[in-house]
Amino acid sequence: xxxxxxxxxxxxxYAPVHFVCFMPFYRHLRGMSGVEVSLSGGLRTxxxxxxxxxxxxxxxxxxxxxxxxxxxxxxxxxxxDLLFAANTKMISPGExxxxxxIFHGISFRNKAVRRENMNADYYFIVGPxxxxxxxxSGLMAADDSRRLPIGFxxxxxxxNRTLDRARLLSRYGFDGSRPVLLYAPTGQKYxxxxxxxxxxxxxxxxxxxxxxxxxxxxxxxxxxINWFEKLESLCGAHVQITRELxxxxxxxLADLLITDASSVSSxxxxxxxxxxxLDVPKLLERAQSGSGxxxxxxxxxRRVGMIAATSDEVVPMIDESLANPGQFASQRQAMAADLFYxxxxxxxxxxxxxxxxxxxxxxxxxxxxxxxxxxxxxxPIAPAIHFDESSIRSEQISSAVVHKTTxxxxxx
Length: 412
Fold this sequence. Notes:
- By secondary structure, the protein is α/β, with parallel strands linked by helices.
- It has 14 helices and 14 strands.
- The longest helix is centred in the last third of the chain and has 19 residues.
């Protein structure tokens, strides 16, 4: 292939969290010579004619160069070498060489492990646990070469010392004298914000002990409730609701996480700090009874923190968790080691794959081999790619434990 012909890379998604998962890799791709990276998709709404996507609404808050954005309606006429996505039903162009699934989280509901997700040519597997679930479910063979042990790029900043806790405290107007709590529920129906959230927030505020940040889910299933309006009256100097699209800085700032069935509990385990789960029995019952359910409360589930069945249990459990932060430390560390490959350096693993496996192999292919970019119906133009996994798999959670010992986070 001629050097003058760029490798064309596309990312698509419909929710902010999708792009947050790709953003670390996107920044690297933008700086690579011979690589052209574009974005498409957008916040979606339903209409009589079908799903509509607002590209600007999705990407503008991230300060993305508008020239990198392709309207979804124009994708049918576009050809790309690689498509990256973090959602199940990928928004695809007319022609694409290979599809790469990077996932947008891993929770004990295991929504990523399902047959509907098996439309990719490569999978950035988050960790050993996810790999086992795909194999045990029969969705992938034990020797499936599509699996790449990359990790979860979104979480790198929790461990790579690029976040500054003092700046984050200042952003939210906190002076650091109180422990910071983050309340981040899932977006599924019957989540804790719907069932007991307001009472929980009121009790925490009334305790006068903590600074609380509330982060509603960025694309909840129940769109009839505007939580920003509904909770506004509860906010003040020590209780804030945030529209922050990226949960990672909030996780880094928090001394304790309050959640329910969200994948943020998995991500937060990398910091080895206390987690409090608000019980959501109806949500879990629905998850268990759903078709193809992969709900797993036995492997890790909510074993890494206390579980509050009612709002009046919350403040005493927060007190106890912060007074004894090591209570579930061994479980958190073991869970994080099982959930994540390359903690703190997943983006580097992805870049290494792209440069040493995909890019070099793709560049050496003669363009005459196919004449045109292959369409999905004719199979991917990307060959089966193998790369040295030893350097990736060998970096275990012990490296993360070194970083978690500095919870206030120095920027270096």
